[in-house]
Specification:
alpha+beta; 17% helix; binds zinc ion
Length: 47
């Protein structure tokens, strides 16, 4: 098992800008469905 530190937050790669981004509290409920690092990327990906 991996040891988890407080600063060791899960990360993902943004589906829009391909940059890594870290878990945020506002995504606590739906982290599994988060694919973009920001509102901006989410909008751009839709257009
Ligand atoms: Zn992004």
């Amino acid at each position: 098992m991996k040891m988890r530190r407080k600063s060791d937050l899960p990360t993902k790669i943004c589906a829009c800008c391909n940059r890594p981004f870290a878990w945020r509290r506002k995504w606590a409920r739906d982290w599994d469905s988060v694919r973009f690092c920001s509102e901006r990327c989410r909008r751009e990906a839709r257009t």
